[in-house]
Amino acid sequence: MEKKRVAVIGAGPSGLALLRAFQSAEEKGAEIPELVCFEKQLECGGLWNFSESTGVEEHGSMYKDLYINGPKEVNEYVDYSFEEHFGKPIGSYPPRSVLLDYIKGRANKFKLCERFVRHHTKVKSVTYSESTRKFTVTVRDYSAFDYTEGRLYSEEFDHLVVATGHFSTPNVPEFQGLNSFKGSLLHAHDLRDVADFKGKDVLLIGSGYSAEDIACQCYKFGAKSITITYRSFPTGCSNWPESIKEVPLLERVDPNGRTCHFKDGSSKDVDAIVLCTGYLHDFPFMPESLRLVTGNRIWPMGLYEGVVLEAEPIVFYLGMQAQFYSFTMFDAQAWYVRDVIMGRLSLPSIEEMKAHSEKWGSAEGEALAKRDVKTFQANYVKELIGLTDCPVTPQMVDETLQMGSDWDKHKELGIMSYRDHPFRSAVTGSLAPEHQTPWIQQFDDSLESYLTH
Ligand code: FAD
Ligand code: NAP
Ligand code: MG
């Protein structure tokens, strides 16, 4: 019998997790389907790759000097610890470059890219035939030809997994007078270097982790003042330094092109505005009937077990949730999706799937009311790992959840110093060393610098 073919779109952390899940089944002697992972970038690692310029097509959303905002121990690979990768324990809050190296390290160890990934190949469209039950994936391969041309080709697959992330298409709301703003106006997606804001008055719109982290960065790099304007809730930070203030939402920008008026009647003259207004789930290559439609939430509706598209339960989406757990959750999802594809797990009826999702949907509501999405996501990860041989264990989930509550406490102690606290690895048991240089004094985000200073 011919091997089934599985198309995976995206070789970021979630796509790589699926490749590793299949490869681990193979290690244990199982026959796995043929996997083809299409990745439009030259390298794997998704958003953790840094685009120097925003001039290039579809640059990434991470900016210079980005450090992780939760301890690395929460999202450590069980089958590839940080200590294994770096040869020694390292600090708990490394910069982006260190995380990218680690993600690639696991991919290299298990030869995921060389075996399964077609790099520099962008998926342009997907169609599904009800009669043959096959997907046709049409891609442009830029690897062998010059970038503008590429080679267009199509292949057929039995299964489709979308792992393209959801923090790449900016959500750009409008505000009265914003277009006539005379200072610099950009979305966080286009921010490269906060050092540009040294000595400037900066306005951040939004109160998610982008707003919080960019406020910290602006402070670190010497902005004169930072004003955060929020729609629903302020960031929740209780200890901003003097120069950071939070105010209700921007109402309009004065025709003078400088003065911003807020809903509480206050105003502020600013030099720069950064829209920290989040991102859109965007799947332009998918046919409408197979497209996931959701906002950035902890329980996107329409996905059974958070991954199976209820509208067409032959399509899988990975990593579409708002994330406290990232790599750990992607592994839990990947092992589950693998087992559904391999027929080791069967799906219930559509009605049962929907009822199950509704239950999680109402639990999401309760979690939001209690302002505790971490426990919700921990419970979700536990449900998935209970169904497969994913190496993440419930004890580890409990330990990392405890790290989450310590993390909250550290942030209350000091928003500019929380990244200096070390955590103990739930994988190796080693306590991270205290990093020599406090975060506020780290001005070199390279891997070499982090591993030596
Ligand atoms: P992505 O990383 O977005 O990878 C998706 C991949 O799909 C990319 O490689 C992309 O090139 C590819 N792709 C997309 N469309 C196509 C196509 N049509 N054809 C072929 N390939 C395609 N998480 C943390 O755990 N800790 C953090 O500190 C943290 N910081 C973050 C900071 C920022 C500014 C942002 C935006 C996110 C941050 N995240 C963080 C979350 C981050 O999104 C996840 O860690 C992780 O990168 C998600 O992995 P993914 O594979 O699902 O998506
Ligand atoms: P997000 O969590 O979706 O937050 C979006 C914010 O924009 C919310 O505060 C939302 O307000 C607001 N918003 C949306 N539409 C708006 C509108 N029309 N008017 C006013 N406000 C509006 O997105 P994010 O903050 O960009 O975070 C994305 C991901 O990146 C997260 O996973 C985060 O952890 C990660 N990240 C990490 C770091 C790091 O330090 N490592 C840095 C940046 C980002 P409401 O609450 O009212 O909806
Ligand atoms: Mg298990």
From TrEMBL:
Its cofactor is FAD. Keywords: FAD, Flavoprotein, Monooxygenase, NADP, Oxidoreductase. Pfam families: FMO-like (PF00743). The keyword NADP applies. Transmembrane segments: none annotated. It is an enzyme of class 1 (oxidoreductase). GO terms for molecular function: flavin adenine dinucleotide binding; oxidoreductase activity, acting on paired donors, with incorporation or reduction of molecular oxygen, NAD(P)H as one donor, and incorporation of one atom of oxygen. Its EC number is 1.-.-.-. Coiled coil: none annotated. SUPFAM superfamilies: FAD/NAD(P)-binding domain. The keyword Plastid does not apply. Belongs to the FMO family. This is Flavin-containing monooxygenase.
